[in-house]
Every structure is written in C-alpha cells, then in structure tokens.
Design a protein that fits this description.
The chain is α+β, with helices and mostly antiparallel strands. The chain is built from seven helices and four strands, in the order αααβααββααβ.
Length: about 210
C-alpha cells in the first residue's frame, strides 16, 4: 500500500471570515474562563460563564447579519465641467427686484428735423453775350428756388441766373439758366455733362 506523501494544506486563521472566527474562538474562550474560575476556587459558581455565553452568542449573530448584507456599491463621483456650471448659471432667469420707473418722454430732447439744403447763390441779371443752358421755367420764384436746392450738387460752382420774363397770356415765368459759354459747341459739351434728369429738360440758349 502506497502512502501519499502529499500533505493537506493547513488553512490559516486569517483566511476565515469574522463570524466563523468567532464560532471557532467562542468555545475556547468559554473553556478558558471556566478553567480560570475553577483555578481560583470559584469553579462552583457559573456566574462568569453564564454571563459570557449570551454575549458571545449575540456577537456571532451580529456577525452573521453583517455577512448576509449585500455589499454596498460605491457610486463614482462625476466631475462637473466648470464651463457647463457657468453656462447653466448664466442661463438661469434672473429675478429682477425693484420698482418700475416711468420715464417722461415729453421732456427728452427730440432729434432735430432734417434741414433743407441751402439755396445756391444766383444772379438776377443775364449776361449780354454768349450762350447758356436753360434748366427750367417756373411760375413762381419759390418753385425755382426749390428746383435749385434739389439739384444743388449738379450745379454747384457755376454761375446760376434766375430771370423773370413776362409771357403774353401766361403771366410771369422764372427761368433758371446755368453758365456763360463763349460758343455753341462749348455750351453743348456742358449740356452732355449734366445728369440725365437735368439734361432731358435743358436746352442751349443765347444771351443778347
């Protein structure tokens, strides 16, 4: 008969759980306490042993309850992004606390009304010779001046003449003429250089 030389591994007390360790040590503690009392001549009194056994039983029961409870899972803490925290704070509606103040708009300064362009300087006496451009004829001086204000950019820097002429059966007409040119060709060249809205109604005239 062959006897195996392999020995069974000895389990260390450290590998035992707490309840099993208490169950293993409880009888040893009871026996030790009883032997100690008997050694001192108090073996006839079961008081220490009677008090110790219930305490050990409660400890063992408590260990079983702890062992039966499921392990508590730890929830990892989620780190918040500082940018998201700031944006969430900004997006929250702010409570406005205060009184509503009525503003009297009647005392506020109003925007100034747009002013009319200045009236170009004009002459009332026509030249005695040369050629010019007649831009228009109007039945009142006010209409003639408004016409010059409207086209001030096109006629600025040139001689402007407003001549009141009496027309038989039609009354007085105010004729607006532009420039003094020595010949017909120079007057026609100036006419072609006018804007389209002026050139369409303008014509070359001769001063006498």
């Amino acid at each position: 008969m062959v006897v195996s030389s392999r020995r069974s591994p000895r389990r260390s007390l450290l590998h035992l759980s707490v309840p099993k360790l208490w169950l293993l040590l409880a009888p040893m503690l009871v026996a030790g306490a009883y032997g100690l009392g008997f050694w001192h001549g108090r073996g006839h009194s079961p008081a220490p042993t009677a008090k110790l056994v219930p305490a050990l039983a409660k400890t063992a029961a408590l260990s079983k309850v702890i062992e039966q409870q499921p392990p508590v899972s730890r929830v990892p803490k989620v780190k918040k992004n500082p940018a998201e925290t700031i944006s969430a704070t900004i997006s929250r509606p702010l409570a406005v606390v205060g009184k509503i103040v009525e503003i009297d708009t009647s005392t506020q300064s109003q925007a100034p009304e747009p002013q009319e362009p200045p009236l170009p300087k004009y002459l009332k006496t026509l030249p005695r010779s040369g050629f010019g451009l007649q831009l228009g004829a109007f039945q009142s001086l006010t209409e003639a001046e408004n016409f010059m204000r409207t086209h001030q950019a096109a006629i600025a820097g040139q001689d402007i003449y407003v001549w009141a002429a009496s027309v038989r059966g039609k009354g007085t007409w105010y004729r607006v003429r532009l420039g003094r040119f020595p010949g017909m060709r120079s007057a026609q060249t100036a006419l072609r250089q006018l804007p389209q809205d002026l050139a369409s109604s303008a014509m070359v005239v001769r001063y006498r």
